[in-house]
Amino acid sequence: MLFYLELVIILLSTKLAGDISVRLGQPAVLGKLLVGILIGPAVFELIETSELIDELSEIGVLLLMFIAGLETDLEELNKNRNASFAVAIGGIILPFVGGYGIALLLGMKQDEAIFLGLLLCATSVSISVQTIRDLGKMNSRESTTILGAAVFDDVIVVILLAFAMSFLGSQDVNLTVIIVKKLIFFVTIVFIGWKVVPLIMRWLSPLRVTESIISAALIVCFSIAYYSEMMGIAGIIGAFAAGIAVSQTSYKHEVEKKLEPIAYAIFVPIFFVSIGMTISFEGIGKQIWFILIVTIVAILTKLIGSGFGARLSGFDLSSSFAIGAGMVSRGEVALIIAAIGLEAGLLAQEYFTAIVIVVILTTIVTPPMLKKAFGK
């Protein structure tokens, strides 16, 4: 029964906060992220974290990336693959160097410094996608490059993390198996998107039940997201690939039209709030300088590194800034990596809360940066 009240609070607060944010000249998503901090355990404690909210928020981010895939021009994505790769590489090298260097300067151990560098390499573009949608720029070359770079970034960071854990952590990690699984995933996902997804849509859409087409699309989305997780790739990448696959069928527009109300009415708002709810201010007074320094390093290294990659690919300064800004958010991907590091002993408990706050801050600054970049 309490969950019903929490749902009311989440939906009402996100809509009001989003409206206030727009009135103040910022993307709606910024207000939704901030209100998650206010109504969560950190401030007013109106909403408690729970397994149910976590699961619903996961559905929200998957639907968000599935819709992004639906709206992505596959031809344009392929055309910008070299630029996306350059952006991803730039957004990995500089954050790793910056994170590793600042960790050593702040007195962290060697293995902890390496892990922090890898954590700052992560990118989660789910918040960037929503912001770009709010700004009406989803079909731009910059947004396509950001999405492509996020795919490359996820794969490279996962492999680097596995490599580091095989040497530093206590877990037994087979690097060869991990790389082979990534290769198998991308080979099979192309075949699935090309042959299997259209077949599933044709099989299920004629069923004499209500909303068979949208149900078929959701089956595709969650199935590929599950397969993605099973192969060691973030579920959001699988959902994005599923959206691209469905966009190549004749059902694209109907799926898009009917899915958006489902996603944005309930699941996506819960996702935004859940990010803010992970913050806890308990005991951060002693680590305030650590948080500020690492946050600045995290923002600048990703902004400059990815932006430099975009500049080398032929983008002008304004577009390079927009692309760099779109890669700044670490979001749920970095939170997952932080939890892995804590469990493996590569991230000390005393730094965990501070790192979570750093991740949230990089996520919060992304919408206004994109607003400034695309506003030009």
Gap from first CA to last CA: 47 Å
CATH architecture: Up-down Bundle
Secondary-structure class: mainly alpha
What would you call the shape?
globular
Question: How many distinct folded domains?
Answer: 1
CATH topology: Na+/H+ antiporter like fold
Largest sheet data: none
Low-confidence stretches: none
CATH class: Mainly Alpha
**How many runs of DSSP E, i.e. beta strands?**
0
Number of helices: 16
**Gyration radius, rounded:** 20 Å
- How much helicity do the residues have? over 70%
Approximate strand percentage: under 5%
Describe this protein's structure.
With 376 residues, the protein is mainly alpha-helical. It has one domain (53-375): Na+/H+ antiporter like fold (Up-down Bundle). It has helices at 2-23, 28-39, 51-70, 74-79, 81-105, 110-121, 126-134, 141-168, 175-204, 212-230, 235-247, 252-277, 288-312, 317-326, 331-344, 349-375. Helix 3 runs antiparallel to helix 12 (252-277) and helix 9 runs antiparallel to helix 10.
What is the compact description of this entry?
This protein has 376 residues and is mainly alpha-helical. It is built from 16 helices and no strands. It starts with a helix and ends with a helix.
What keywords describe this structure?
single chain; mainly alpha; Na+/H+ antiporter like fold; 376 residues
Outline the secondary-structure elements.
Elements: H1 2-23, H2 28-39, H3 51-70, H4 74-79, H5 81-105, H6 110-121, H7 126-134, H8 141-168, H9 175-204, H10 212-230, H11 235-247, H12 252-277, H13 288-312, H14 317-326, H15 331-344, H16 349-375
Helix pairs in contact: 1-2, 1-12, 2-12, 2-16, 3-11, 3-12, 5-6, 5-8, 5-13, 6-8, 7-16, 8-9, 8-14, 9-10, 9-11, 10-11, 13-14, 13-16, 14-16, 15-16
